[in-house]
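Board work, copied verbatim: Glycoside hydrolase family 25 protein
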Amino acid sequence: MQNRGSTNAEGIDVSRYQGSINWKKVRADGKAFAFVKASQGQRYVDPTFEANVKGAKEAGVLIGAYHFVDAASAGAARLEARHFAEVLSRVGGAAALDLPPVMDYENNPAGLSKSAINSVANAFLTELEKITGRRPIIYSGNSFAANFDASLSSYKLWVARYSTSAPYDTPAWKQWAFWQYSDNGRVDGISGPVDLNVYSGTEAELREEFTKGGGDEEPMTNEEKAAFQALQQQVAALQSLHSMPVPDWAKEAVTAAAAYNPQQPLIDVNSATSYDVYRLLVVMHRMGLFDKK
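↓ predict structure ↓
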């Protein structure tokens, strides 16, 4: 794989072990991005996750999140992916973060075969992308990454190798997107050691790739475009409905639903402005319920 250079964007990754972080000092120390631990297994949530996301965003540090995989089967991996997605929803979901969600898969305590390791990885990645709509990144140590086969090569690699020498090629990857090159770095705003990382390009290229719709996002298929156009037409119909007489009991819900933006769908399924409310109002209109006093 390629080596790092002086122009590569610098970043860190953190968890509860870094304690309280002064993110403004981290940014001032030249760190452009950070991956923060969100979850592990099927239940664990890092207690500093939400505070780290908030602090990094306020300081202008590009932020991503990772989940440490414990699963020893494909079924367990899917459950872990759902847990990760639920934790991400606490900060607005994967779409609210700058960098794609990360599967941290770096050890094998259950003694799985390479085939089983790939089955776990594929199950987690597929489930997570289905739920979040974002294509994940894979984090792993350089040695452990040798377990992954070519079926995973389409995912970007964040590789760990604590050396001045470049990571070596693996069956799935000849290039890295991110490289964790030290686990004992020192950064302003963090009292103890912290992992140091680089991105494969400059900070400008990092921001171009991940904050302007590039890189990890795939174009819509014809089927998706047709569905999106149909949704736009339904929203237009709802907006037309909003101009008609509406009983007092429905006015608040209609106003909220009419404000729904299909290009920025809301993640909170309990919100009064969710798409579910919109669909309910359309059905009620078609049943003529708005004509009743």
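The longest strand covers residues 33-40.
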